[in-house]
Amino acid sequence: MRMHRLLIACAASLALAGCSSWNPLVALGLKSEPAHKPTPLAPITATVTPKAVWTTNVGKGGDFRLRPQVDGTRVYAAAADGVVTLLDLDNGRVATRKELKKKLSGGVSVGEGKVLLGTLKGEVIALDPEGNPAWTASVAGEVIAPAAISRGVVVVRTADGRIFGLDAKDGKRKWVFQRPTPALLLRSEAGVLALSGDVVAGYPNGKLIALDLDDGKLTWEVTVSLPRGATELERIADVAGLPVVEGSTVCAAAYQGKVACFDIQSRAAIWSRDLSTALGLARGPKHVYAIDDTGAVHALDKASGTSVWKQDKLQYRRLIAPVVANGFVVVGDLQGYIHVLSPDDGSIVGRLATDGTPVHALVPLTDGLLVQTAGGTLALVRF
Fold first, then answer.
1. Residue ranges per structural domain of the chain
2. Dist. CA 199–CA 171, nearest whole Å
3. Top-confidence residue, 122 or 21
4. Which CA distances in Å does 274 have to 118, 295, 313?
5. How do strand 218-223 and strand 368-373 relate by DSSP bridges?
6. 331 pairs with which residues across the strands?
7. Phi first, then psi: what are they for 26, rounded to 5°?
8. Residue 353: Cβ-neighbour burial (10 angstroms; 0-12, 13-18, 19+)
9. Residue 13: which region, alpha, beta or left (left: phi > 0; alpha: psi -120 to 50)?
10. Which CATH number describes the domain made up of 24-382?
11. pTM of this prediction?
């Protein structure tokens, strides 16, 4: 029997805090539990002190990594049970809570006067800035990734790999992009990037694609990594995490494959490096940051792909995708710790404990970052 779209709840949902220290094949019952226990945390010499300016509880995330989003001085956060909370960014005070009475699995996204969420039943829900329902659209597929919005178009990706363009005014479908996919694919929460008139998305078989925002037509495609191996499992090479775009360069990574950067105009590869990850990348002034399947954090030179450093003291701690905040590399783990790494050598220079549940989201801000955990803690952290 064909195992279609359910695969590998890595990099996304299903009560797993991340692919980086967990073998994704466990989700299918194809392998036993990982042999590696999370690496115990060793004492550090802290030169940075991350502190929670405020904390509040916004409801449990369940099996899904629901991300908070900021719009001006407001923070929007969601819980799996359908509660959406609006808070003041400066002090964390709750302005209002809205009960949608629907189980949420994707979001939050904010833009152009809309707050966007998704459900496993294939619904895209749009709220106004006050949290009142604006419209609901059906995309007939599980929505486990945040939507993107640009130039009046809401772009939503479903778990089976289809990408929909919806009218931001009323949710009516403008276009859908669909192509044949392998029997096995990664179940990814990464979603898509909507940049001006382009939609950029990782795809199965190691592909990175761009669509026209107005009509959903394929405008370019590059190969990050070619599938390798004799079996369908070995040949999984999905680009499951969000790529990063800077100027005319886009970088992406493939599971069981490579990290690669391309020139957007010519589609030419600038560099590639063997490194398997199903998580998104982060970029800083000099480096691209990635977390491999063991949980080691890597810094690669942006110009050449050369390895600059590797931090392996957090292996098997189910890290989520890295972010760059206040000039530091920040990761979160399965026990609710936030780790601050030096961009120069990867040393752990700061650490903060949250509520003991897996960190589900890190959202960089101009000064600090927002942290949301599986247990429902939302915190504004500054260094």
1. 24-382
2. 18
3. 122
4. 34, 15, 21
5. unpaired
6. 339
7. -60, -35
8. exposed
9. beta
10. 2.130.10.10
11. 0.90
